[in-house]
Amino acid sequence: MFYNSPHYLEKVANAVKHVNVHDHICSIYESRDEQLAVIIPFIRYGLENNEKCLYVADENTVEEITGLLSDGIPELQSYMDKGALTIINKTKAYLEQGRFSPEHVVEAIKKNIRTAKQEGYKAFRITGEMTWALSGDPGVEHLMEYESDVNHLYEELDAVAICQYNKNRFSPEMIRHILYTHPVVIYKGTVCRNYKYVPPEEYLSPDAASAEIDRTLVQILEIEKREESLLEKNIELQVINQKLNAEIEMRKQTEDLLLKTLRELERSNSELEQFAYVASHDLQEPIRMISVYTRMLERQLEGKLDPRSRQCLFFLSDGSKRMHALVQDLLAYSRLTSAKEPFVPTDINSVLSEVMLDLQVAITDYNAEIEIEEMPRITADPTQMRQLFQNLIQNAIKFKSEADPFIQICCERSDSEWHFSIKDNGIGISPEYNDRVFVIFQRLHEKEKYPGTGIGLSVCKKIVERHGGRIWIESEEGSGSTFHFTISRSL
To answer: Would you say 359 and 389 are in contact if contact means Cβ atoms under 8 Å apart?
Structure first.
C-alpha cells in the first residue's frame, strides 16, 4: 500500500477528523509514511479547532518532526510561536525525574490540560512516539499499567491522546498489551473501536485472568448474537430485495405497456387527424353541389311551391350552409397539427393589430371597445397566435350582453411563461360549464341565437397546448368572462 498517495492520505484524514475529545488511542504503524499520515491531520485538526497540542518526539528528532509537520501544516511556525503547539523529546515528557514515573506523568498531563483551558483553548491534544520505552529506562516496566490507568484521566478531562507504536519494533507480547490498554485503535488508515480493550479495573486486578475469561465468554455470546441478528437481517433483506425485484419487473412491464399504448395512441391520433383532414376536404364538393342545386331549385320553382315545400327547401339550404361551416372548421382543426408552422420570434402587438383589422366590421357593428396593454415579443407560431386571439376576441364580441362590448387584453410575465388574459363584460357562463366549453362541438346556446359550430374554443385549447401552456376560464353567468392562457417561455 502507498501510504503517501493522495487517496490514502485523504481517507486517513477523514477518519482522524472524527477522533473525539476523551479518546485514548494507539496508532499501530509500520513505516514513517504510515505514521505521518495519521499524525499530521491529528495535529492539524487540533490546531484548527483551537486545541492546544503537544508532540513528544523520540524515533524522530524534534527538528525532524518540526520539518515533517510543516509539510502538512503550512502555518505551523505561527502556531508554535503563539504556543498552540509544542514539540519536546522523551526526557522532558516521560523521564524528567531520571526515571519513568506514572504518577508524575499523570500530574504533568493534568497540569497541561488545566493550563490549556485557562489560556482559552477548547481542549488539550497530545501524541507521542512510544519507541522510547524500548530503551529500558528505569520504571518503564510500569508503562502498560500507566496506559491502562490513564484511560480514566482522558474520560474525565477535555483531552485526547494518540500513543504511536511501531509494530516492527515492539514485540508481539507488547503489542498485545498495547491493544488491551487502548479503547481506540488506528491501523491501516482506519479508526476502530477496540473490542480487545480491557477496562483498567480489570487489567490491573489481581484476578485479571478470571475476569478475562468472564469477559471473553460474554464477548463470544455477544458475537454469536450479532451474527444471528445479521443472519436474520440478511434474510429480511433478501425477502425485501425479492419484492423490490418483482416490483421493478412489474413497473418495467407497466412502462413497456404504457409506451406501447402511447405509440398506438400517437398512431391513432395521426390517423384520425389525417382522416378528419381528408374527410372534411372531400366533403366540401358534395356540400357545394347540394348548395348549388338547392339555389337552382329555389329560382326555378319560385312562386310555384306550397308553404310545406318552401320550408323543406329552406331547411335544405340552411343545413348545407351549416354543414359547409362545420366542414371548414373541422378542416381548420385538423390542420393545427398536420400543417403546423415552426416557432419563431413573434410580436404580439403586430398580431393583435392584424386581428383588429380582420374584426373591424364586427367591432364597428357592435360598437365594441377593446383596450390592449403593451404586449411582449414571444417565441410562437404567428399564424396560430393570430387564430387564437381572433377566436377569443370574436367570442367576447359575439356573446355580448345588452351593454356595448368592452374587452381588456393583458399580459404578465413569470420566470417560466407568459400569462395572457382577455376579459369581457358579456353574458358569461355558469362555472359548472368552465371545462365543457373547450370540448369540440360542445355548444351552450341555441344556434339560432348564437351561430357557430362549437369548435372555436377547442381550437384555442389545441393551439395553447402546442405552445406548452394551458387555457381556462373564469366566469359567472351575467357577469362577463375572463379567458386566461399561458405560453411557455422555454420554446
So the answer is: no
Kindly report the number of other CB atoms within 10 A of residue 407's CB atom. 21
Residues near 26 by beta carbon (within 8 Å), at least 6 away in sequence: 162, 163, 164, 165, 178, 179, 181, 182, 184, 185, 186
Measured CA to CA, the distance from residue 332 to residue 329 in angstroms comes to: 5
**H-run or E-run covering 417:** strand 417-423
Which residues on adjacent β-strands are paired with residue 184? 25, 193
- Joined together, the cell numbers standing for residue 221 give 455470546
In one-letter notation, the amino acid at residue 95 is L
Output DSSP code: residue 141: G
Q: Is 377 exposed, middle or buried (0-12, 13-18, 19+ CB in 10 A)?
A: exposed
d(CA 456, CA 437) in angstroms, rounded, equals 9
CA dihedral 414→415→417→419, nearest 10 degrees, is 0
**Single-letter residue type at 76:** L
* Dist. CA 187–CA 201, nearest whole Å: 26
In angstroms, how far is the first alpha carbon of the chain from the final one?
Answer: 55
Chain center to CA of 369: 49
Task: State the Cα–Cα distance between residues 335 and 99, nearest whole angstrom.
Answer: 102
What average pLDDT is seen over the chain? 86
Q: How far apart are CA 429 and CA 432, in angstroms?
A: 8
Task: Summarize pLDDT for 336-394 with one digit per residue, the tens.
Answer: 665 567 899 999 999 999 999 989 999 999 999 999 999 999 999 998 999 899 999 99
> Grid coordinates standing for 452?
357557430
Beta bridge partners of 482: 423, 474
Q: What is the pTM of this model?
A: 0.51
Q: Give me 263's grid cell.
A: 405509440
| Residue that has been written with the C-alpha cell 403593451 in this structure | 374
Cell of 167: 509494530
User: Which of 244, 412, 440 lies closest to 334, judged by CA?
Assistant: 440
Report which of 26, 40, 60, 15 is spatially closest to residue 161, judged by C-alpha positions. Answer: 26
Neighbouring residues of 269: CB distance < 8 A, sequence distance ≥ 6: none
H/E run at residue 155? helix 143-156
Nearest to 184 by CA among 156, 208, 161, 201: 161
* 404-440 pLDDT per residue, tens: 999 999 999 999 999 999 999 999 888 887 777 887 6
The C-alpha atoms of residue 141 and residue 27 are separated, in whole angstroms, by: 20
DSSP conformational letter for 254? H
